[in-house]
Write a structure and sequence with these properties.
Largest sheet: 9 strands, mixed
Radius of gyration: 23 Å
Mean pLDDT: 94
Number of helices: 1
Shape: globular
Strand content: over 45%
Amino acid sequence: MIRRSLTALALALAVTGGAAAQTASFDRFTYQGRSLEQVKPKAGEYLNPIVAGYYPDPSVTRVGQDYYLVNSSFAHFPGLPIFHSTDLVHWTQIGNAIDRPGQLDFSGRAISEAVFAPDISYHDGTFYIVNTCVQCRGNFVITAKNPAGPWSDPIWLPFEGIDPSLYWEGDRAYIVNNRAPAEPPRYDGHRAIWIQEYDWRAGKMVGESTQLINGGVDLSKKPVWIEGPHIFKKDGWYYLTAAEGGTSVNHSQVVLRSNQLRGPYVPFAGNPILTQRDLDPARPHPISAAGHAELVQTQNGDWWATFLATRPYAEDYYNIGRETFLLPVTWRDGWPIILDKGKTVPWTQKRPPLPASPAPTLPTSGDFGYTDEFEGQRLAMQWIGIRTPRTPFYSVANGRLSLNGGAALGDRSGVPAFVGRRQQHVVADVSTTLTFASTTNGARAGLAAIQNDYAYLFFGLTRINGQPRIALYAREGRNTRDETAPETLIASAPFAAKGPVTLTIHARGGTMSFDYQADGRTATLKSDMDVRFLSTAKAGGFVGTVIGPYAYSPQ
């Protein structure tokens, strides 16, 4: 295993000194989360999801006895988090593949644009990630000798579409991805899967492109959004697995096979091999939207699949994004099956018979909490911001996080002075202790919960009409450009305390409550606020809610 300390470089935007008059200082950040389901695995079992919260589109690869996982991260920076495990159950983040502003430029990108579903693989001593930067130059490859990083600058690839993956056969490499079909699209969502050879030594595509799948398993049924393809070989057959139906309630995983790499591919008669779309949406504690799987064979010869799914708290509302799940793969008559039709994704499952990973310092599954005391001079790698920064806006020193500068929330032309952690549980309590003396109307500092540039809330200190206040603002727009969605003052109260204030957000499914403590007294600014506008169903896009310190001073 190759390790990197959890306190190593996480954001390539830290500053080492300097402060403006409107600097906000945060002493600590505390998170405590639990699930609504309250399912407890028995001895020898694991709990789904294996990586909770906004960690979607998982790709997994094995190198000897070590497993590495990467997730999509869109316009959050740093991006493409990398995890390590030896047992497929306990995962430890070891780095971020995109951790330098010079690697990719997210300027102007919506939060649910930029880096989509990645694919990780290993060949001849080198790790490869092939990925798409949506609206920021397209498909690319990055490489690393150490999966913890550093990862290279991108090699750009000259084809359209999303979700590329690498298939290695001997010393040759092929890229398979979602592109437009070789005919005028017959309907919205009509896409195709293509393959082309990749010269990994020269870093370029070679030879012809071949369309492998047109539309999906059965074009006559107008399948939509065939994507996330992966190819592997077993017993003389090439298997092509892909997601179909779109990454929501109709999501599924399908499989086809051929005795030739470039086809023709014949679909499995029992497709899909994973879905929850046919189940009663009113079932208690549902797991939904299952799909986007990748299969991996263990060193023992067993097969497992990582995939994404969601945990709605009501109807199709979920604020924490799409998450990473794990299930064993069963082979029947030469076909892989992740889950029989009509069955629900299980919360618990027997663990893979693999060498146990040490329990991670920061868990990724089940009920857990943590406190970040802002030790050292860098933020931990789990902290993320919005878009790639060009101007420093934070520093860490003497147990404090200081924020200054930055764009206003909703200004896609800039980068806000915001760093956050993913909300990983439906039930969560998040708090920080803040020192901030506002001298300008509109200046603010506190906690922000952000789903996209136009769907967020702010809770903290500000100045309104010359008076210091503690305030709660919200904006309820969608992920697409929604500048017309107004920011609304939900509640405010005078704030006369001279010392620090502790802010706490209590998330309970689709509601949040907001408490503050100063001068030894605790008060509630707002209880049980409806925050379903932070859900994917209302806000749109592909991400989950990120909560953390934020500061802004009008120029």
